[in-house]
Amino acid sequence: MSEITLHDLEKQYGETTAVEDVSVEIRDGELLCLLGPSGSGKSTTLRMIAGLETPTSGTISIEADDVTDQPAYERNTSTVFQDWALFPHKSVLENVAFGLKMRGMSKDDRQKRARSMLERVQMGGYGDDDPTNLSGGQKQRVALARSLAVNPDVLLLDEPLSNLDKRLREDMQIELREIHEDLEETFVHVTHDQDEAFTLADRIGIMNEGELVQVGDPDEVYENPKNRFIEAFLGDTNFVDAVVTRTSSDAVHVDTELGTELVLPTDGEPDVDEGTGLTLSLRPEILSIDGETGRPEAAGKQPVATDGSAHNAVTGTVENVIYRGSTVRYSVSINGSSMFAERTDASTGAHASGDDIRLEWDGEDVLAFRDDGTRVTL
């Protein structure tokens, strides 16, 4: 039985549709990340689960109970907000115990529970502190402890880490993941940060323009994006315009803006016709530079063999070299178009602006999309 079921959920504000036909089953004990750009409807969806917004249509069930019209205070959910919403006139301990007080728990019991939650989030020595004197990371831990203290069936997190600096945000992602694994409760986490979603999630639900576009395990949505929007949103890639010139039972041949023909292997009759316009996605991790892979640990591939074929290789001129600490990015001009590739080792075989450079890849690693953004099955 699913912990949360959303069925044909819709939310309108006047003539604006914020959420449209969202249906998903959120499993008992999983951590689902709703991921998408600003305005995609992810926070509105979370607020409807919490009871802070009323759906225009559709239903919400928690533990098989229809809670669509149930007020927030009657749902056993708890929400961690982006701005933490701590009471400045209460101590840290009083903040954590506040929800328990509202539920009628005795003072001794709620203080014991609050101290236990503060220990869980590594804030055990701060119970008497003024929350206004805490750092951003400490405030986040207190807000998390307060939400966990009431022992909710579902913990809802609305971009709770977005106000933290990069290093602290990354540390809190790991801590939050460990807390979820320890509690085995159902978490729904909203974020616009792809790295955060991949770090935290058991499954990722990607939203765009109010719709839930794809739901799946992190590796599934990355390796098999449903459309071009997801491919572009989940990470850097090279998009290359192409036109199908001929097809066979084992390959699709395309002419590209790079000035060369490429071959895309297929597992049978491809779902594409001659003359069809395509957009190809060549991720930096699948590209090798002069026969050496840029990120083999990500691509899981050996260097592409240099056999003289132009089908899966192009030559261009380095325009810019950007040092990024752990990687070096090369911007390469090819037939008037620009592509980029990355290397993890800046000291070996380094290139400079003006150098000629050869990029190679396995055709089976290329993703193809139609003009309407839908994925082509190859």
Automatic annotation (TrEMBL):
InterPro entries reported in the protein's UniProt record: AAA+_ATPase (IPR003593), ABC_SmlMolc_Importer (IPR050093), ABC_transporter-like_ATP-bd (IPR003439), ABC_transporter-like_CS (IPR017871), Mo/tungstate-bd_C_term_dom (IPR008995), P-loop_NTPase (IPR027417), Transp-assoc_OB_typ2 (IPR013611)
Domain of life: Archaea
Keywords (A to Z) from UniProt: ATP-binding, Molybdenum, Nucleotide-binding, Transport
GO cellular component: ATP-binding cassette (ABC) transporter complex
Start and end residues of each ABC transporter domain: 4-234
GO molecular function: ABC-type tungstate transporter activity; ATP binding; ATP hydrolysis activity
Protein name, as recorded: Molybdate/tungstate import ATP-binding protein WtpC
Biological role stated in the UniProt entry: Part of the ABC transporter complex WtpABC involved in molybdate/tungstate import. Responsible for energy coupling to the transport system.
Pfam families for this protein: ABC_tran, TOBE_2
Membrane-related topology note: Peripheral membrane protein
Subcellular location field: Cell membrane
Assembly and oligomerization: The complex is composed of two ATP-binding proteins (WtpC), two transmembrane proteins (WtpB) and a solute-binding protein (WtpA).
Cited PANTHER family: SPERMIDINE/PUTRESCINE IMPORT ATP-BINDING PROTEIN POTA, SPERMIDINE_PUTRESCINE IMPORT ATP-BINDING PROTEIN POTA
Family label: Belongs to the ABC transporter superfamily. Sulfate/tungstate importer (TC 3.A.1.6) family.
Residue segments, region Disordered: 291-310
EC top class, as a word: translocase
